[in-house]
Amino acid sequence: MMFGTLVLGATLALAQTQPGNNPAPNATPHANPAHPGPRHGDWLRKYKDLPPDQQTKALENDPNFKKLPPERQEKLKQRLAQFNNLPPEQREKIVKRMRKFENLSPTQRQQARELAQRYRDVPPERRQKMRRAMRELAQMSADDRNKALDSAQYHSDFSDNEREIMRGMAEMRPHLQGAQTE
User: Fold this and answer.
1) Is there a contact between 117 and 56 (Cβ–Cβ < 8 Å)?
2) Cβ proximity of 176 and 97 under 8 Å
3) Residues 6+ positions from 177 with CB-CB distance below 8 Å
């Protein structure tokens, strides 16, 4: 779920903050002048309670969405559909994590976007295997997690890139985790 949250959050945030794009209409202004523009999760918070067909219509009418290439638009629609298929509690956690994303430092946000992109580039069957491993790794202490990621078993089961992505996600997790309890 952490990967999905990060991917959805980074994707929607990236759509809102593409160079040359203006903030989404009616987006909540950011309270921090150092980070102008819409806050991560604003679009979902605003439209999450609408029926899926109305959400899709709102997305399609968003000026920033219209500026995206068609394949990117389609991916966002698919992510929105995936989001809507989640249980309400899980959707709420995602929105809260997206809000937490905005509190990351610019370097951490960039790292999260890069991890999300690298994760998206991994074939789906490998992502599934990584998700299973991440669930196991999340239950471990940082030392045990690093030992596991450096173990012969993980070296044989995962590529260097996959292990780096999982390690980066594990390091990002504490910064995003607090959103579950808000």
Assistant:
1) no
2) yes
3) none
- Distance CA(143)–CA(31), nearest Å, equals 37
Percent helix, strand and coil across the chain, each to the nearest 5: 75, 0, 25
Rounded to an integer, what distance in angstroms lies between the CA atom of residue 120 and that of residue 139?
Answer: 24
Taking 70 as the pLDDT cut, the residues of the chain under it are: 1-41, 177-182
For the chain, domain boundaries? 2-20+39-181
Note the pLDDT of residue 8: 55
Q: Give the pair of three-digit tokens for residue 3.
A: 């990967």
With CA atoms as reference, report the closest residue to 18 among 95, 93, 57, 76: 76
101 CB neighbour count, 10 Å cutoff: 25
Q: What is the DSSP letter of 141?
A: -
pLDDT in tens, 94-110: 888 788 887 888 898 89
Q: Whole-prediction pTM value?
A: 0.58
Q: What is the CA radius of gyration of the chain?
A: 17
CA 92, 106, 114 angle in degrees (round to 5)?
75
